[in-house]
């Protein structure tokens, strides 16, 4: 496996102020350090409130950390995501940094094929190549072709989740962040999705993922980091961490 670093996180801190309660401050991340290499699948485990999703969102920079660094190592050199201007960040997200959440957000009256093809175009494919790649991704996840031009807003939760995963993995980015990407899927479609995710490490994609499904972690993760109270408290193989 190529051990070249793709993601380097150092000293990450994040707090939230609860304005709707009494202004109290909640600490979500307390000095997190983490590396993810090319071809590595790192699963984040831990109870609700441990900081798992905050770590993903700070990495994707939908949250801006209070302090610390998040560096994406690109072919052009290291890029500090926390300091990147918004326009440059948008370009980087399009080509090299993917994020798949539990929920799909799309423009009105946009169908699955166009959503996935748009993701492929952002990753460097021309329009024809992007549509072909999008069709292949949707077929791999068994989304019925009659739904490809239907407004994503009318799809079921499981169908929307498959569209989201197809968009995240079409011509896979350098770093892919997954936040419970199969939570709404039935067993057959969950199996297809897990097979797709498992194939990414062989393509050299660095994956950082949150799953509450321990079976998925055991199946996919090359390394598991356990979080508690905003810190990484344990790191190792799935057998080492989940059996502890």
Cα(first) to Cα(last) distance is 27 Å
CATH superfamily of the domain at 1-84 and 206-244: P-loop containing nucleotide triphosphate hydrolases
Shape: globular
CATH architecture of the domain at 1-84 and 206-244: 3-Layer(aba) Sandwich
Low-confidence stretches: none
Radius of gyration: 18 Å
- The average pLDDT score comes to 93
Strand order, main sheet: write it out: 6-7-8-3-9-10
Structural class: alpha/beta
Give me the count of strands: 10
Text of the CATH class of the domain at 1-84 and 206-244:
Alpha Beta
Alpha plus pi helix count: 8
H/E element sequence: EEEHEEHEHHHEHEHEEH
β-strand percent reads 25-35%
Helix content: 25-40%
What does this structure look like?
By secondary structure, the protein is of the alpha/beta class. The protein has a domain at 1-84 and 206-244: P-loop containing nucleotide triphosphate hydrolases (Rossmann fold). Helices cover 34% and strands 28% of the residues. It is built from eight helices and ten strands. It has helices at residues 52-60, 86-95, 112-122, 127-140, 157-169, 187-200, 214-220, 238-242, and strands at residues 5-17, 25-37, 41-45, 67-74, 77-80, 97-100, 175-179, 206-210, 223-228, 231-236. The strands form two sheets. It has a six-stranded mixed beta sheet with strand order 6-7-8-3-9-10, with helices on both faces. A four-stranded antiparallel beta sheet has the order 2-1-4-5, with helices on one face. Strand 9 and strand 10 form a beta hairpin. Helix 3 (112-122) packs across helix 4 and helix 3 (112-122) packs parallel to helix 5. The radius of gyration is 18 Å and the shape is globular. The mean pLDDT is 93.
């Amino acid at each position: 496996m190529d051990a070249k670093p793709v993601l380097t996180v150092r000293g990450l801190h994040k707090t939230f102020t609860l304005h709707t309660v009494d202004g109290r401050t909640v600490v979500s991340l307390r000095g997190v350090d983490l590396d993810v290499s090319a071809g590595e699948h790192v699963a984040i485990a831990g109870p609700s409130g441990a900081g798992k999703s905050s770590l993903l969102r700070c990495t994707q920079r939908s949250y801006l950390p209070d302090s610390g660094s998040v560096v994406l190592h690109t072919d052009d050199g290291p890029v500090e995501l926390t300091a990147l201007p918004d326009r440059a960040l948008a370009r980087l997200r399009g080509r090299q940094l993917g994020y798949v959440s539990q929920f799909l957000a799309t423009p009105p009256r946009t169908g699955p094929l166009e959503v996935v093809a748009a993701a492929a175009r952002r990753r460097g494919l021309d329009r024809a190549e992007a549509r072909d790649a999008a069709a292949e991704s949707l077929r791999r996840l068994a989304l019925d072709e009659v739904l490809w031009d239907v407004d994503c807003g009318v799809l079921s939760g499981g169908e929307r989740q498959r569209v989201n995963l197809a968009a995240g993995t079409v011509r896979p980015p350098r770093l892919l962040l997954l936040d419970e990407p199969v939570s709404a899927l039935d067993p057959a479609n969950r199996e297809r999705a897990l097979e797709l995710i498992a194939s990414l490490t062989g393509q050299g994609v660095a994956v950082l993922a949150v799953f509450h499904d321990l079976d998925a972690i055991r199946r996919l993760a090359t390394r598991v980091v356990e979080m508690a109270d905003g810190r990484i408290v344990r790191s190792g193989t799935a057998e080492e961490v989940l059996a502890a």
